[in-house]
Amino acid sequence: MNRPLQLNLNWKLATFSLISLTLFIYLGIWQLDREAEKIALMHAVEVRVKQAPLAASALATLGENVDGLPIGIEGRYVERQPLLKDNVVLAGRVGFEVLALFVDDATETVFLVNRGFVAMGKTREVLPDIPPTPKDRLSLKGHIYVSTALHQQYDAGELIDGLQIVQSADPKLLQAAIGASVYPYLVRLDESTPTALPRYWPVTSMSPEKHRGYAVQWFLMAIAVVIAFGYFTFKSEPDDQALDK
Predict the structure, then answer these.
(1) Are residues 111 and 220 in the same domain?
(2) What domain range includes position 24?
């Protein structure tokens, strides 16, 4: 026998369900918007990467709109100890990113170049194994990286042989540590370029697929709210009550 449904509306439950449903739908849509933003960002970066490398002389006319642009510079590395960007992990190994100075011959511009990753020694007192840079003139290819991290200052420490540890790779914050005027944005070496080291520099820390997955989770939670509200609001009468009527 089919049991008749009985409306059992609880205003507190209805209010809670409406707020939860609205919130979960909003979060799901927000994650879909984030997915679209990441896809657009990755496409824009891909377009820039495929451009012909710029010469250092062309940077002056571009201002701050240089993030991701390929660059080709010719000159020499400055003969000084590199800076080590602290707290870097690659393939489960803790270490540093090696930051070296490079002078472009054509413009005499000094660039801070991120060569890539080196593993830390057994302790911080053990000098990391850093492949040396040649003293001869050479050509480098890389991409300009404009940091979006909010660093107000950097903390410096010393390893053996005077290697200096820094917490930021932003050239504008490292002027004092470098002791020279440098181009305000970092150059990340292409992996195929001589003197480049291993690296992991993703365009975004979270892929578009993850945002889509989070959106699905929020929408499923919204559906669960609707089901729970319907279950507690529309209940079947017990058989004995139905027979009495």
Answers:
(1) no
(2) 7-43+207-233
